[in-house]
Write a structure and sequence with these properties.
Layout: E1 2-3, H1 16-25, H2 38-41, H3 46-52, H4 62-66, H5 68-80, E2 91-92, H6 95-102, H7 115-125, H8 132-144, H9 155-170, E3 177-178, E4 186-187, E5 192-193, E6 196-197, H10 207-215
Parallel strand pairs: 1-2
Antiparallel strand pairs: 3-6, 4-5
Length: 216
């Protein structure tokens, strides 16, 4: 199972996998949120969370705080079932990293919420998912059909799900992953390295230089 939720937390700064994902995506790196530290994730409000990170040189984006409940759910699931879930059974991914990998290491330069961006992603998916547009239409109808569902899933969420599907299906037990140019941090609480997986090997252009600029 591949999910677009952080798996594994840091206690001392940004996760290297998040830093490299931002570097890879360049101008589109805003789609990657720096994962809050473990202390911040379990804070009772965003002000307390920011205080927890105040000495670490990076703050908490509102978008990152908004998915805090999902991060805690995953973290608690892995800790409760630590003897039942192997590290290769549930893995973290990021849809825009996946699309960049499918695009030869270059980010897709259009928003997936725009028609051109949607079309570009369909073209990248087409060799890997048979009749992808039909599958997309069926998924859009199935998961957004009832009145309440449109609040839970947008068409671009389904494109994100396709990206995660490729990682889970094609990445194998040991998929390629970020960080690529540096060592991952390890979360001892869940006994995992913090990594972002993608479905196929790719030569990320000038990743060490980009990462160096990102972290200055």
């Amino acid at each position: 199972m591949a999910i677009d939720i952080p798996i594994g937390l840091s206690t001392h700064g940004p996760r290297p996998c998040d830093q490299e994902a931002k570097a890879i995506l360049g101008a589109w790196g805003y789609s990657v949120f720096y994962t809050p530290t473990r202390e911040a994730v379990y804070a009772s409000n965003i002000d307390q969370a920011k205080e927890e990170q105040s000495s670490l040189g990076y703050s908490i984006q509102n978008q990152a705080w908004a998915i805090g409940p999902r991060i805690r759910e995953v973290d608690q699931l892995l800790r409760i079932h630590e003897t039942e879930i192997n590290t290769d059974q549930i893995i973290e991914t990021h849809p825009e990293v996946v699309y960049a990998a499918l695009n030869g290491g270059e980010p897709v330069g259009k928003s997936k919420k725009e028609q051109r961006g949607e079309t570009d992603r369909f073209e990248l998916l087409r060799p890997h998912l048979r009749d992808v547009k039909t599958v997309f239409r069926n998924a859009t109808s199935k998961f957004r059909g009832p009145d309440y569902a449109s609040k839970l899933a947008r068409p671009d969420d389904i494109l994100d799900a396709f990206a995660a599907l490729l990682v889970a299906r094609d990445g194998g037990r040991d998929p390629p992953r970020l960080p690529h140019a540096t060592s991952p941090n390890r979360d001892d609480e869940v006994d995992r390295d913090c990594v972002i997986a993608y479905p196929k090997e790719v030569n990320w252009p000038s990743l060490p230089t980009q990462l160096e600029k990102t972290t200055e």
